[in-house]
Specification:
Elements lengths: L2 H34 L6 H27 L5 H21 L5 H21 L1
């Protein structure tokens, strides 16, 4: 077995481990929300947990795609994400002082999420 094949095997193994971890976290959060949604007095906390689970689902789908079809299937998605990251960064730099604070905060959070997505695609 060559070093490259061994590295690919390790990469796939890490991806499977990461996939399992994401699915477990998503499942625990869903159960917690179902069982204890009435306990949380903060809708903001519930919304945050739901948003985290949406992000986890995107990562799960991405990893499933890579494992099933290989890394190259995401090149188009990667290019689009890089483009959105670049354009949004320019927009934010140019229009930050005119934007609503909440919209600016949300856009910055999306930018961080895009950076994480790109890291996952590498």
């Amino acid at each position: 077995m060559s070093i490259q094949q061994d590295n690919e095997g390790c990469k796939k193994e890490r991806r499977v481990d990461h996939l399992v971890n994401l699915v477990e976290k998503k499942t625990r959060t869903e159960r917690h929300l179902e069982e204890h949604a009435d306990i949380s007095k903060s809708q903001e906390n519930i919304d945050h947990a739901k948003k985290l689970n949406e992000e986890r689902q995107e990562k799960i789908d991405n990893l499933k795609n890579i494992l099933a079809h290989g890394e190259n299937c995401n090149n188009h998605e990667k290019e689009n994400t890089e483009k959105r990251l670049l354009y949004t960064e320019g927009y934010l730099n140019h229009n930050a002082e005119h934007m609503d604070q909440n919209a600016f905060k949300n856009a910055k959070e999306k930018q961080e999420h895009r950076k994480e997505q790109l890291d996952q695609m590498k």
